[in-house]
User: What shape does this take?
Amino acid sequence: MKKLVVLSGAGMSQESGLRTFRDMGGLWEEYDVMDVATPEAWQRNPELVNRFYNDRRKQLLDCEPNLGHQLLAGLQEDFDVQIITQNVDDLHERAGSRKVIHLHGELKKVRSSIDPELIFDLDGWELKLGAKCPKGSQLRPHIVWFGEAVPAMDEAVEITSQADIFVVIGTSLNVYPAAGLVHYTPSNCPVFIIDPERPALKVKGVTFIEEKAGAGMQKLIDLLANL
Assistant: This one.
């Protein structure tokens, strides 16, 4: 069974109703990234940071996996599908995808402020200030903030280097280190990029599918049938 590795970004979940960060009308137009997505912001104003992620969780509860998520999960019948996602939602898992690595953390989880290895599932959408881990530290969102290391990156590179097929869905390939994964694909590995706007990418052998996630996945399935 061929290994199909997928790198997904915000555009993957946009059709489910989740607001993206970078697009026009996105969250970064409403919030300064330095105020809600850095360790310094958490130290400076934990109330604002906590409210921002509580709002994101509350929105996620009203969202469902879209056609793109569902079609991707369906590919597991014919491929060994490994998803590497920049998204912090759980829509891949809810659609039925079994192998998912979250590069930037998970919205529905929280972790210790002093021990990043202590990670817990959050019951409901609200993390309250004052909620502490067993070691006595305040629980924080289980999110990789700007300026923090990406713990899952080494695993993602290893998986990408073993890909038979590599697919990028819904990401502009502007956020590093995740955007650099495409350069770790084997030399004979076909690369497909699904996005309404073609990213500026200098990689040979790329097939661009200029569609949103759902329509793009439908076209990808047709193309995979001919490989």
Q: What stands out?
A: The first helix runs from residue 10 to 14. Strands lie at 3-8, 80-85, 100-102, 105-112, 119-121, 139-143, 165-169, 191-194, 206-209. The two ends are 13 Å apart (CA to CA).
